[in-house]
Amino acid sequence: MAAKARIIKCTGSPYEIGFSHGSSASDEIHGNIGLYADFFQDRAKINWEQARERASAYIPLLSAKYPEILEEMKGIADGAGKGLSMEDILTLNARSELGLTNFADGCTCISQQGPEGRIFLAQNWDWLVVHLVVLHIIPSDSSLQMQFMCEAGLVGKIGLNSAGVGTLLNGILAGAQSQDKFPIHVLLRRILQFASTFDEALAIVEEYGLASTCNIMIADANGKAGSIECSPHGSTVIPPRGETFPFVGHTNHLYATNRPLAAVDHPEENSFARLARMDELTRHDTEKGVQPSFASIRTRLCDQQGSPDSICLGKPSDDAVGMDKVTTVSTVIMELSSKVAQLTLGRPCENLPILEWTMSGLH
């Protein structure tokens, strides 16, 4: 199945936003439910009904602290039809809590400060080839507009908002879970919907917490950025480093020196190699005077040293099954001061960007 993404504009109330999403991407949502049902069975040894029962444990928390997101999930379910319930959509949105305690997706992220106040966020997302959408959400209330890429049926992921705050995500393999904190993708949506600065985004992380372990990289239009290692035990910020073009990178392991002692992960070796390689390439660019740009950062994300476990992950074999099918599914590069993002589907070393979007519209 080749990767592709449908662009969906959603406006109105939470339910109306969800219904537009669900009705426009019904086939993709049902396809993702099938894919994640197989994933849960393979990695967590639970079927879809069991996964839905576990995900439903988040309903009391979200009903109390973010009821509008449950309304949106109900709208997604009604729009997608064929008997889907809000609980099914919640299960999709809790896929990290249900599955990534057994297997972490691969991702290489970087944030870098450029000249004249430009700030970049960029990521290769390595995962199974799922059904993707780009959502352009315009709430009818006073919250921020958002544009982000996600699996169809999810309410938040990788993107930016009208204030110029952007988000990236690294999955982390760790066993700790909490049902009194927000699932990762719900928390990402909360940031995109309500945070106008890095500090406001960090305050949201601290207020609502993360139900499972991950790294969220955030930058804002004013140039403030950081990589926030999150777990149910607390969060730790890794700031950019360097004088000329300060940067911070992250892959799929915890490396903050002052993180909570109880935050323990179980990374793959290639996570360390990819992070070291991104650091090497970024420092090399800086030493040569290469400024951060869409082109220069994209070149780093195309790197294949150490393939197949490289920054641009190798292509799976034709007979691969299960998690052996993981590859680089997409590349997103954002510049937050201009609120511009580029999306590439598939491995960036083989494919060109298919979409550039700004907060003034999609084109």
From TrEMBL:
Organism superkingdom: Eukaryota
Pfam families (UniProt xref): AAT (PF03417)
InterPro entries: C45_proenzyme-like, Peptidase_C45, Peptidase_C45_hydrolase
Domain Peptidase C45 hydrolase span(s) in chain numbering: 114-348
Protein name from the UniProt record: Peptidase C45 hydrolase domain-containing protein
